[in-house]
Design a protein that fits this description.
The protein is an alpha+beta fold and 150 residues long. The protein has five helices and four strands, in the order αββααββαα.
């Protein structure tokens, strides 16, 4: 009976649906509740997480395979230099406090040379990335804001 209940189980866009009109055993209803709470795999009836033994095997099988130039996301790499000054409490651009952000202040560097530029907050780091570190784009943004009286 339990196997029949699992056969009736249909997964549709991460929502758990069961065929209407079927009667389920108490065990099956328990599994339905756990599956809806995403505590067990609906098809296997086991917990979602991998065992430590399997995790260790996966770590060992991937060792050294995806480091540096072997990684598909490798972009040639530059050696980023060490910061020339200690990390301050505030962003060097906008003055926001580093402890207002989960990861604190970010190490900013020139992407061509790897030269350290300063310590900046997440917002300023994101803004510089979006304008591709271009003074021309930043000037165009300033002109746009001035033109529209913002």
């Amino acid at each position: 009976m339990l196997w029949q209940d699992l056969k009736d189980f249909i997964i549709n866009k991460n929502k758990f649906m069961w065929k209407k009109g079927t009667k389920h055993t108490k065990q099956a209803l328990q599994k339905i509740r756990l599956a809806r709470a995403k505590q067990i795999s609906p098809t296997l009836g086991k917990k979602w997480s991998l065992s430590e033994k399997i995790k260790q095997k996966l770590r060992e099988s991937h060792k050294g395979k995806y480091i540096g130039s072997k990684n598909n996301n490798w972009k040639g790499g530059i050696s980023i230099r060490k910061p020339t000054r200690p990390k301050p409490e505030q962003c060097e651009i906008c003055g926001a406090f580093g402890n207002d952000f989960k990861k604190g202040l970010h190490f900013d560097h020139n992407h061509q040379t790897g030269e350290f530029r300063g310590w900046i907050c997440l917002r300023c780091n994101f803004a510089l990335g979006m304008v591709k570190d271009s003074k021309d784009i930043l000037n165009m943004l300033i002109n746009y804001l001035n033109k529209n009286n913002i």
